[in-house]
Fold these 3 entries.
Entry 1:
Amino acid sequence: MMKQRALILSIALWLPFLALAQQAKDSVSLQRKARAFVRKGNTLYQQQQYIDASVAYKKALGKNNNYQKASYNLGNALYQEKNYKEAIPQFELTTKTAKDPVVKAKAFHNLGNSFLVQKQYQEAVNAYKDALRKNPSDDETRYNLAIAQEALKKEQDKNKDKKDDKNKDKDKKDDQKKDPKKDKGDKKKKEPKKDKGDNEKKKDKQQQPQPNKMSKEQMKQLLESLQNEEKKTQKKMNEKKGQGKKVPQEKDW
């Protein structure tokens, strides 16, 4: 009887250890499967099969949802698909979980690219600045930061102009409400009576050549020249903007 009790007690004591051992074994098995999916995803990525690569990385995360390399590589694949909205949370996750400052910098850089191509300029500026804090020597990040800052300034200036115009319109309407006769009086002053002689003089003036007025052909040439310059500038910026470092996948062999 005593031996049976001792045996039961011994088994009861060992059960937790056996369970932990099994969990560790299962964890190792899942990790191996996750790595296999990442390797498959990397191969597909190099073949520019980004959709299939995304599927492989997602399967890796299904085996291990804390697998940083899988989430980072998934972000890159989604970015290549131009699926920027879904790429953003993957890069954000990497910026929080990665321990290597270089990896963090790459994730912040790609995060900035994702914001930039969506015209979220303030968010892009913030991401590029964070990338430079982790890797101050990255010239491509610094270049993209300059582009984002310039775009942000233009957007802010445009919004300011719209706000100013809106305020002017509001002030004008308020003035008209206070003194509605004033506007009518102003209109009358601006429209004096014209006799036949005035009309003839105006007609003669219109028939005379106007100084500094470009011909249609000159205007056409100027517009074409400006358009060509704009295309060249835009092409150069597009080669850099949103591209930055097409960060290669972190291989996990």
Entry 2:
Amino acid sequence: MAEQLTLNQLVLGSSPSRGTNFKVAHQTTFMNKRIEPRSLKSLVAISAMAIGLMASPVALAEVVYDGMASVSPDKGFNGYTQSKGPFEFGDDLTLAGTARLVNHFVFQYFGDIADNVVAMATLRFYANDADIPGKITKAPGSLLWQSDPFLVEKGDHIIDIGVPNIQVGDTFTFSLEVPTLSGVKGSQFLLHTSTKPADVGKSFNDFWVKADTVWSLQRLENGAQRADFAVRVSAIPEPSSVALGALGVFTFGCYFARRKSRNQ
């Protein structure tokens, strides 16, 4: 005769013919006193998550500036203004979000490089803390970091420079310099520009050029062509911010676990 399943067996998901318990949640689970081990497990899991957050801030990296989505069809800017150069040039970026330890810098360039030309570029970060006589705008001043020289290759490239968690302000200036190129055909490094404002973060429609030791603001075609560059900046929070967030998660977990225990 076919076995009859009781209501309790149906709820538990067990079958007397197989003797298998699928461990489906049952209301009696929340009525007995075995809630304490479950709370303890939850607390341990929350603690592990908090420790993980403090130990692995890389997982919290975020894009704080992104001008890569709309690359101009032209080949970019090569650091020359008014037939002079080559110069160190770049742009000041106002970052979104709150993460300020930069760990990646991505940009797109075109290398008009002859086969017999070897060129090395350097990426630099500056704080905008230098006064300009008669102006409120601050120029690039204190050097925050510079990369090791890297090879400029022929053709169109997107390059990702790993940055060792360099702290920057809400606004900072990046620059690129390729001193061995002449700026004429077959000897050019051209940083791509973008066709519209950045999707993340902000930048004014101008850029910085350094001649000798003096920085000056320049525009492309008197402002008719956008002077924002195709770059992306990623950053992580400061360790203190990560630890504070982890502590909040841990504290909430403790409160939740205690409240659940008192209600049993």
Entry 3:
Amino acid sequence: MAQKILTRRVLYELVWSKPMTKVSEELGLSDVGLKKVCTKHRVPAPPRGYWAKKDAGKPVKQTRLHETADPQDERIVIRGQQDRLPEPVRAVLEQERARRKPKAPPQATLESAPALAPHPSITGAVRTLRAAKIVDGVACAAGPSACGIEVGIGSVERVIAILDSLARELEARGLVLEPAAKCVSVSIPPDSLSFSLRERIEAVKHVPTLEELATETRLREKRERAIQRGQWDSGPERAYPEFDHVRTGDLTIQIADDYVGGLLRRTWRDGKRQRLEALVPDIAGGIVLYLAGVKARREEYEARQRERQRQEALHALAKARAAREDRRLEFLGAYHSTATEAATVGASLARLRSVMAGDPPSELVRFAAWTEARLRNLQARLTPDGLAAALRNKDLFPEIDDLAIPKAEPGER
């Protein structure tokens, strides 16, 4: 989705024509991001509950758009967060949007469990939850396929219903829900992601019972007597906790992996008007989208690794070519030196022979023989076969050049 340029009037008409969640989706923003844009450009947005009242037929009031003297407020540039997603992830996002267009069937209510037998992938978790030992009103699912779920006894059947619906939604998308000891995961090998289902726990100020108050009084009196005797370490100071940790029944599903720092949704929770049961199709779609993100992240990392390795290999080849070029120059220098020496020795030998008429001294004869042998040696090194053998021995000009720059693969820079 390319960036959009709107006027204040156009944005105003958009946000008052449909809920912010729908407008933000069309613009590629989160609803919070869209609200920030409206605030920045002084565009009034519908208050909380506006659309619920309007749908219920109750009277609502639309805030008027006031003109602004700042010309910068008139030009609104929308750069959607989704533009920053890799192309494969955006493709999956469009597929999920298309999937959500038909009206979804009604979801299970809070009180209802799945009408059919639980999905096969969660039978272990269901069995463990229903047979869990209840401690302080909490059912704890512990075991290799129990998902590590801890919820109040009143939420057990609701959790089972949500997991069952989610397993079926994922199955419709070609994924299998895989319960583990402390989480739930889905995978398209080699990629996978995990998520958890948790119940919100609220810290509530403890209201002591009469018995606890009496115990508190006895402890205080005992402590005071101990202090009078000089015993300052006189045992516990409280007979009851300061806070009680109460299970609220509000559930949250959160993806553990942090793929793109907020570009993709990874948390769904109960709200005042909407429960997780109604969000199951969106959650399943979000998991599929996030898994596509995991794949894109892996492929991007692998591409960076391949490019890094390629650059290292190219650097090593360039270094080896530079070293070989030095050896070639050294060989060329040696060739020039040999040719020069051969010419000098040949000229010297010719002059030497010209003065060796008659019966030359034996020392001169031996010197001439050595000079002639030296010349033959130099000339042998300068013949084509001699030069080729020397070049072959030093591997300076191979027929197949292993140090040549490799051709780039498609997609490589």
